[in-house]
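Workshop exercise sheet. Pairs work together: one partner reads the sequence aloud, the other fills in the structure field after running the prediction. Swap roles for the next sheet.
Pair: D.N. / O.F.
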Amino acid sequence: MKVLKFGGTSVGSVESLMNVKRIVEQAQEPVIVVVSALGGVTDKLISTARLAAKGDIAHLESYAQIVERHNKIIDGVIPEELRLDVRSITTPLLEELGNIYRGISLIRDLSDRTLDIVVSYGERLSSTIISFLIKDARLMDSRKFIRTQKQFGKHILDAETTYELIHSCFDALNDKVLLVPGFIASNAEGDITNLGRGGSDYTAAILAATLKASQLEIWTDVDGFMTADPRVIDAAYVIDHLTFVEAMELCNFGAKVVYPPTIYPVFHKNIPILIKNTFNPEAPGTLICEQRPGTEGKAIKGISSINDTCLITVTGLGMVGIIGINARIFNALAKNGVSVFLVSQASSENNTSFAVKNADAELAVSVLQEEFAPELESGEISDISAERDLATVAIVGENMKHTTGISGKLFNTLGRNGINVIACAQGASETNISFVITLKNLKKALNTLHDSFFLSETQVLNLFVVGIGNVGRRLLKQIQSQQQALLRDKALELRIVGIANSRKCVFTRDGIDLDHYQQMLEESSIAATPDNIRQGVLGMNIFNSVFVDCTASQHIADLYYDLLSNNVNVVAANKIAASADYESYAKLKRIARKKDVKFLFETNVGAGLPIINTINNLINSGDKILKIEAVVSGTLNYIFNVLSEDVPLSKAINMAKEAGYSEPDPRVDLSGKDVIRKLVILAREAGYKVEQADVIRHLFIPEEYFEGTLDQFFSNITKLDSEFEQKRAKAAEEHKRFRFVATLEDGRVSVSLQSVDRAHPFYHLEGSNNVILLTTERYKEYPMVIKGYGAGAEVTAAGVFADIISIANIR
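Structure field:
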């Protein structure tokens, strides 16, 4: 049996609740499902109660929003035939809640007990709705088995009674799904209470420990514990494994993935905790278990912080050598419910510092002044002071005990960056090094430490993407969708630092948010001239830079030599440079080799097919290309495949354009220019010195049809429909198909329209597919065949993406 807990935004929307349903119903063993209130509802319940206590009429609207929120969720996730059944329970609950708010408003008072009742409605409503959503779920009432008692004005778990009640309620049940509202509880008098912040996690852990679950799963809205707060550090990544101790340390110092008391019950029963993302259930998450780390691997697992810190310092020479001073300090604080999360003491014993939340600072100072009144009067204790606006940072990892120099590296890193450490603490277990700094330095400290301890194994590629038409736009989308996976699985960060369209460009070293790049371009004042683009790339002078050309512009291609000369890698979907005069092509290849950077243009031929890379591998391994036969125009192949008695040539051309297979001006394809460029590139990569003028051309559309405007072309091309249909019909009678073939043989290059029969490898090409036959000294009798999608923005973008990845040389 497993215990699954869902809370926060995991139960905050129709989408997330449907994910919950799928996750639970796919479970292979019985489960206890613990749920919190709908995301954000608890805060709404509290704020509405406070408005009512002030007599503010706005509480009525706020209450109405609570009702509307739950009704929308019911309509969104519950089948229509069950909604009346659900509302027969939720409507009375909501009416009760409304009556309580009216009562609060009338008496203008909100007691702790009343507030406990108010907030309980969040879990009571959500669990009712979800019990109807999940098939065969039995709804349990946690008020009957989670028992609390009052201590220091707070509800504390009555563990012994709770365990007995859980067994009495659950032991006889054998349902596949038991649904439990988290957070809420009751006391011995039967009053509604709760387990406080994060109480749903705690409820789940109590049930898992008591009933000896095989695993506790905490489903949240993040992929797991992160190495640091991703809101502060973009490069933070998910930690795959933590020990219980490491997880507890990170939670105690601000990591909000799990409520700290959650870990204690399951730790003592050695029940693993798995942190998972409801919105990304395929992600592996973070596993927390007793298994100790080996001596290999990172010494630091994570960095956590508390930005709500006040440092209280008790100072006095009269403290030196006096036994029991610290006992008095912490006993006095404990009796008044003040929690301390860091202690630092000078070895001379003349001062003791400890960290508390800012809200507890005034009480802590007052309590200690009262406790040490005689010593303050006599001067034995000179001061009890509070320093606010501080932050506490902790670096956590059980492997620190196996690694020398961690503290030295930590403080040296902070010192080099001008960050002063006010107080620090480290236990003998060497699991946690904690220190206090000013709040204004928190973000700087976290980024500095994360860079120092985590990023040495992460490779960054800084990308400048020029041209965001069909290919460029899809490339950015593919990069965005894959960025996290590459960072997680390959330690590769793809950072877009520059983007240019046909009108404007934008550059930023920190990286461009791909959700807003179009807006950034609109707001940019930098015109997308070749010189501005060149200055933007070279002026940034950033490491591991890659210039990605998704245009068809001669002016952009003219930038390549300067970029390569300045150690900028170039990835080109643009065919112009590689198919220009041979000397210009060779010059680019030479400078790339000289500067040890990449000039890649795989997508110039065959979109995403690995043609050029295969040719290079053959040659580099000692083979020789003897002959190339290729159908490398996805546009023309598409046109010839859709030609029929009902689809004349002119219509087929229009279809290719509308489907996005052709160039913006399809005459580039139909004139053979695009195929000629590709053939020239293939021949050059195969080791032949070829110019476009060397290509023998046997075209199927007369030259005069390419003169004039594009509109004139579409008007005139219909004149060929009848003649071309006769040719097509004759080929069909002979069981042949048209293919526009590019050929390299004995150093000679040509393009021509050919009719191929069923026995030919080109015959069965479908849609816009390309095929290339490579005859080499090794592949002479049976040529190598490369076949697949050869056109379309999506696969071309994927090919460009593959070139980018190859620069990182990852596997």
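Discussion prompt: The chain has a mean pLDDT of 90. What would you look at next?
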